[in-house]
Design goal:
The chain has 6 helices and 6 strands. It is of the alpha/beta class. Helix 2 packs parallel to helix 3.
Length: about 160
């Protein structure tokens, strides 16, 4: 008898902030898309989300591009064109029933597993995390507890 399929995982979104170097942003969004992130979020509190997401559209192909905080921004039409159908307005998605949980970066892989389980139990569409250098490892190896004792330094 086949095993029961695993329950669906919540979708994962990443809130982008602008680094000092645009090349760093492009590298991050390409790596996040390769790690199977479902959505890249840009918040009007940080920058014009349509400018950020239009730039992201140029270097990504699959990931949804979510604008938050500026549903009627002046660059929306241009971003929609460049995003090739991937632009999502967070406020519109919420009105249609999507519910994304925004949270800080988890302190451990156990905390990440617990957050995903809580989101599923709560019926959330997904979880939005801040972009962080540790995020790729968390996304690629969410259920692997690494024993990194080999990195401990003896202090004497």
């Amino acid at each position: 008898m086949p095993a029961d399929p695993a329950p669906p995982a919540p979708r994962i979104g990443v809130r982008l902030t602008l680094p000092g170097d645009a090349g760093e942003l492009f590298a991050d969004v390409r790596a996040l898309e390769a790690a199977n992130v479902d959505a890249l979020w840009a918040d009007a509190a940080d920058a014009d989300p349509y400018v950020v997401l239009a730039a992201c559209a140029a270097v990504t192909w699959r990931v949804a591009l979510v604008a938050f905080g500026a549903p009627n921004g002046s660059g929306r039409a241009t971003c929609e064109l460049l995003a090739r159908g991937r632009l999502v307005i967070a406020e519109d998605a919420a009105r249609s029933g999507e519910r994304w949980i925004r949270q800080g970066f988890p302190e451990s892989k156990l905390a990440w597993r617990e957050a995903r389980a809580a989101a599923l139990k709560d019926g959330a569409t997904g979880i939005v995390l801040p972009n962080d250098p540790r995020l790729l490892d968390l996304l690629r190896n969410p259920d692997v507890d690494d024993d990194r004792s080999d990195l401990d330094i003896a202090v004497g």
